[in-house]
Design brief:
CATH topology: Growth Hormone, Chain: A
Number of domains: 1
Largest sheet: none
CATH class: Mainly Alpha
CATH superfamily: MFS general substrate transporter like domains
Helix content: over 70%
Oligomer: single chain
Distance between the termini: 9 Å
Number of strands: 0
Radius of gyration: 22 Å
């Protein structure tokens, strides 16, 4: 047989002539909508992560030791990751049945409202154990919202992409992560500097701990309103319109995705696990390790000094995301991600060299130069592995279950690779030193490598034909025989 199925762009496939939004304004609206939404979602998430390290252990938890309060606070941080798979099922169901637009609006509202309410919560001194309980509930709602946000934003960008440039066009939602990080941590840095707050010595009646920490949460209301305004002007994606017109929308996407694509769900979960582990080691655990008290075996670096290091190095994260999308188009998802994951393995083996207090010192004597290099390497690898994932995961699934399938993979991976990462890393560093945290990252990267080796290359696949390829391949094999 000498005929071959030629991949086409999603805007030329099928009976419908609809394609991506045409013109600069249409394309710009798609970019802004996918970028603004995830920026807001990650801003909300990072605001909580920062507070979970520097505020909540003091105000919402009571423990006989600082380490115990920190671990309790990090446990509530992990609650959102338990909620995220549930959010992926709920929002994935409506995203695959009712469309991407309405679902994206709902996910944004869910997380935004929960974040604002955290800013109004009473503390442990005011209402006792109800304070951490309410905090956990709000954190759970944050997780529900994020469970549906990422996948919808990725589909919005990817299903409106140009032929041969889907990796680059899909990376816009990923840029929301470093931008949200910069906004959240920049806000905290400005507040703590203005209020002269030092986490290593301030009393609980300090102005920042009384009301200043609430401002970043309350500010979320403004940017959520902006995100809603942008998204109300969206059109539905052409791929979903064609699926609906062809009568391929399924009644129960979550059942359908496990019936037809369960291998892809498992594979997608482990493809993301190294990315997630690295992500939260470099943004959450490292903060607790760097600014933690020397008496607890941590570095005791000044909070402001380390936050400046994070804000500078996060730029490497942002800059490398577009390169990730571009390189994923040039070399293919599989080859590129295998290369980056091998680099993550090498990075994990360097943790002892960069973070051992015996090498870099503690407190004012800490070697911030070495810490800066460590953070730059980690943030660069984060951008390279994270940027292409918004194309790679959705490409595993057919259009009628793409929202649900990619969301479940992404968010189940968040439990295995992110929810427990700060907690495990804090315990490992306390018990065995920072080198053991690097070995933990290596173990997660090995799992990702196994998943990547078994995946097929998806960069040239037409999104409208995902799920039909095995049947086509079988027909070709019969014809050859």
């Amino acid at each position: 047989m000498n005929t071959k199925t030629i991949p086409q762009s999603i805007d030329t496939v099928g009976p419908s002539t609809e394609g991506p939004a045409s013109g600069t304004q249409g394309k710009g609206r798609i970019i802004v909508s996918s970028l603004v939404g995830t920026t807001i979602e990650f801003y909300d998430f990072y605001v909580y992560a920062t507070a979970a390290i520097s505020v909540f252990p003091l105000l919402f938890f009571r423990s006989s030791s600082d380490t115990g309060a920190l671990l309790a606070s990090l446990a509530t941080f992990g609650v959102a990751f338990i909620a995220r798979p549930l959010g992926s099922v709920i929002f994935g169901h409506f995203g695959d049945r009712a469309g991407r637009k309405a679902t994206l609006l709902a996910s944004l509202l869910t997380m935004g409202i929960a974040t604002v309410l955290i800013g109004f919560l009473p503390t442990y001194v005011q209402i006792g154990v109800f304070a951490p309980a309410l905090l956990a509930v709000m954190r759970f709602c944050q997780g529900l919202g994020l469970g549906g946000e990422w996948s919808g934003a990725s589909l919005l960008a990817g299903e409106n992409s140009r032929a041969g440039k889907r990796g680059f066009d899909s990376m816009w939602p990923q840029l929301g992560a470093p931008i949200g990080f910069l906004f959240a941590n920049g806000f905290f840095l400005a507040l703590t500097m203005t209020m002269h707050y030092d986490s290593t010595s301030a009393a609980t009646n300090h102005t920042f701990l009384v009301w200043g920490w609430r401002l970043p949460f309350l500010f979320s209301a403004i940017i959520v309103a902006l995100g809603l305004y942008v998204r109300f002007k969206l059109d539905e994606t052409p791929a979903f319109k064609r699926t609906k017109a062809q009568g391929k929308v399924v009644k129960a996407p979550v059942i359908e995705v496990f019936r037809t694509s369960w291998r892809e769900v498992v594979r997608g979960t482990f493809i993301m696990i190294a990315t997630y582990t690295l992500f939260y080691l470099m943004t959450t655990w490292i903060l607790s390790y760097a600014i933690g008290k020397q008496s607890a075996g941590l570095l005791g670096i000044n909070y402001h000094s380390f936050l400046v290091v994070q804000l500078i190095t996060i730029c490497a994260f942002a800059i490398t995301i577009p390169f990730s999308g571009w390189l994923g188009d040039v070399f293919g998802r599989k080859r590129f991600l295998i290369t980056v994951t091998l680099a993550i393995v090498a990075f994990g083996l360097s943790f002892g060299f960069f973070l051992d207090p015996a090498r870099i010192g503690t407190g004012d004597q800490a070697n911030l130069g070495r810490m800066m290099v460590f953070m730059l390497i980690g943030m660069t690898l984060m951008g390279l592995t994270f940027g292409i994932q918004s194309a790679a995961l959705p490409e595993l699934f057919p259009t009628n279950v793409r929202y649900t399938g990619s969301a479940i993979s992404y968010n189940v991976s968040s439990i295995l690779g992110a929810a427990v990462a700060p907690f495990i890393a804090a315990w490992l560093a306390h018990s065995y030193g920072p080198g053991s945290v690097g070995l933990y990252l290596v173990a997660m990267a090995v799992l990702t490598l196994i998943a990547l080796v078994t995946m097929r290359e998806t960069s040239e696949i037409d999104l409208d034909e995902v799920g039909e390829t095995p049947q086509i391949a079988a027909e070709e094999a019969v014809a050859i025989l």
